[in-house]
Write a structure and sequence with these properties.
By secondary structure, the chain is mainly beta. It has 7 helices and 38 strands. Strands 1-32-33-34-35 form a 5-stranded mixed beta sheet, with no helix packed on it. It has a 4-stranded antiparallel beta sheet with strand order 2-38-37-36, with no helix packed on it. The longest helix is centred in the first third of the chain and has 22 residues, at about 10-30. It is globular, with a radius of gyration of 24 Å.
Length: about 600
């Protein structure tokens, strides 16, 4: 039908036709666009639909905030178990399930099984993907055989496997579409990270800094798995992929040639800097943000220099992989403060002007806020006053002021180091309450003693060089965890809530004025977002190291969470270890945990 003929019809027909033409034009435009635009537009639209939970971070801001409010402060006490699902796998269940168009996608730790559950009939498994992996990879995994979750995009589910592969599955059938080797376990490089879909690519990092793995991040084409780019944390500039204007806004952060010159000889080749945490993305700036991890080995005497660009916050162009900026949080990190932690994006008025911000609670005990357009340092606040490795912070230079008393040098037995190598924040995925403009942090309150020793590098073997004893932060009534509401605008904490054990999995905030989180001893809790008061709790079959998600199905709001104790804090329990220095010091710190919970693996879903 021609447009000319159509204009002579009735007003009703005109309106219908106008809509049809607009739809056709839009459809044509989308069809003519690249797969990048389609995948990106779909994910943005789905992430803005609070009925869904299509990314580990809920949205590209990684806000972990839902606008759902059917469950709220007045009725959360009435939450009941709606249904449950056992994964059939023990060990630590990190991350959270995805909910896409009425299907829940569930992942497990090794052997990295993926399940699809139709929410119309959650009693039946729609499909499962159970890969075959060499069991030997378990031996080179640091701190349990965890996996932090799945990604969705373009009708595909993307998963990582401990054996170093990234896999694309058909979201409807579970059929394997492609599989790429990202990491080589023979040298200790594994995959535990949740991928992220951006444009027409899926982004994934690497694990294994504790074994001297040189860290990198890689972009694969979602269509067929073809590698688009790979950027390292250490080495020559062409390997790190530095943009021509890299750190131009902040040259004092350092610019060219530092990926080799800040290392002794070729130590950068086995220098760590892996990234196995979380990514965030700004679709307007086309920049992705993440943290690179600790340098290797942990023994600082064996690697003099600032060891760039380990322990850095990165802003990279997603199309090219080139870095616009990198901000090193702990130059020459000597405590294993692997800075891969969550980064959340927000637009807030700070210092009198509205800024595009990224906020990152680091393991080194400092909450950093940067302007995400150029990397300018906006805030650097201690997560807790007990942080003692740093006396303060030099905002002009952008570096912490060290206290030599808590150095880990070879001629000095350091005691009472706060925070421990676990950090006052670890892998937990936190949230931003968009109504209150508060960051809801799940933290660890753990300190340590540190004794270094020399060791040679051997491919595929642990390359640490330190013995650790960990224990609860003194003066905190033996509590090892907290939930804190942090205000970036004022650098103040609005409220603090103690927990007996670390809040390892993170938090989720909702428009119902609630903050949900799980605990290592097996509780899921909902607290008042205004003051942290507990309004509801439920005892789960096993401890929690993952994060809650919330979604709506057929007009009803649900809250879902994995149970399954493990990860670094649960390594003693899951592997039956008793030496307090085992598990890189975690066994001694969490020796009481086995009195509160045992291994298990599954999902529990709640509703009113």
């Amino acid at each position: 039908m021609s447009l000319k003929r159509a204009t002579g019809r009735t007003g009703l027909h005109k309106k219908r036709l106008s809509r049809a033409v607009a739809t056709a034009i839009a459809g044509f435009a989308l069809a003519s666009a690249s797969g990048a635009a389609l995948a990106n537009a779909e994910l943005i639209k789905l992430s803005q639909d609070d009925r869904q939970w299509v990314m580990q971070g809920k949205d590209y801001d990684h806000s972990h905030y839902s606008g759902l409010k059917q469950i709220n402060r007045s009725n959360v006490k009435n939450l009941k178990a709606a249904w449950t699902f056992s994964t059939g796998v023990l060990h630590g269940h990190e991350g959270g399930p995805l909910v896409v168009n009425g299907i829940m996608y569930i992942h497990t730790p090794f052997p990295n099984i993926t399940y699809a559950i139709d929410l119309d009939n959650p009693n039946k498994i729609l499909w499962e993907h159970k890969p075959k992996q060499d069991a030997s990879v378990r031996a080179v995994a640091c701190c349990d055989v965890v996996n932090r979750g799945l990604a969705y995009g373009d009708g595909k589910i993307f998963k990582t496997q401990l054996d170093g592969h990234i896999v694309a599955l058909d979201a409807k059938t579970g059929k394997e579409l492609w599989k790429m080797e990202n990491s080589d376990p023979k040298v200790g490089s594994t995959l535990t990270q949740a991928p992220m879909v951006v444009e027409d690519m899926v982004i994934v990092g690497s694990s294994g800094a504790e074994l001297g793995v040189r860290g990198y991040v890689t972009a694969y084409r979602i269509k067929d798995g073809k590698q688009v780019w790979r950027a390292y944390a250490t080495g020559p500039d062409e390997d790190i992929l530095l943009a021509d204007d890299f750190n131009m806004a902040n040259p004092h952060y350092g610019q060219k040639g530092l990926g080799t010159s800040t290392w002794e000889g070729d130590a950068w080749k086995i220098g760590g800097g892996t990234n196995w945490g979380w990514y965030a993305y700004d679709p307007e700036l086309k920049l992705m943000y993440y943290g690179s991890g600790n340098p290797a080995p942990w023994n600082e005497t064996m690697r003099p220099g600032d060891n760039k660009w380990t322990m850095a916050i990165w802003g990279r162009d997603v199309k090219t992989g080139k870095a616009k900026f990198a901000f090193q949080k702990t130059p020459h990190d000597e405590w294993d403060y692997a800075g891969v932690n969550w980064i959340g994006l927000s637009d807030q008025v700070v210092n009198g002007k509205k800024q595009k911000l990224l906020t990152h609670p680091d393991r080194n005990g400092i909450v950093y806020t940067l302007n995400r357009e150029n990397g300018n340092l906006v805030r650097a606040d201690k997560i807790d006053p007990s942080v003692n490795v740093f006396k303060g912070y030099d905002m002009k230079k952008g570096v912490p002021i060290r206290d030599p008393e808590y150095s880990t040098r070879m001629d000095h037995l350091a005691k009472g180091i706060c925070p421990s190598a676990m950090g006052y924040h670890n892998q937990g995925h936190d949230s931003i309450d968009k109504k209150r403009e508060l960051v809801m942090l799940g933290t660890n309150m753990i300190c340590m003693d540190w004794e270094p020793f020399m060791l040679p590098y051997r491919a595929g073997q642990f390359f640490v060089g330190a013995t650790l004893n960990m224990y609860a932060t003194p003066g905190n009534n033996g509590n090892m965890g907290q939930v804190k509401a942090y205000d970036v605008k004022t650098s103040k904490f609005k409220w603090v809530k103690d927990e007996k054990f670390s809040v390892w999995g993170g938090t989720t905030s909702t428009a119902g004025d609630l903050v949900f989180y799980g605990t290592l001893d097996g509780m899921i809790k909902a607290v008042n977002a205004d003051n942290g008061k507990t309004l509801w709790e439920f005892k789960l079959p096993s401890g929690v190291i993952g994060h809650p998600v919330t979604y709506e199905h057929k007009g009803k709001q649900y809250v879902a969470i994995y149970y399954g104790v493990g990860g670094w804090p649960g390594v003693g329990l899951v592997f039956d270890l008793t030496d307090p220095t085992a598990g890189l010091g975690a066994v001694g710190a969490f020796k009481e945990l086995q009195q509160y919970t045992k291994m298990g693996g599954g999902v529990m879903v709640f509703s009113l």
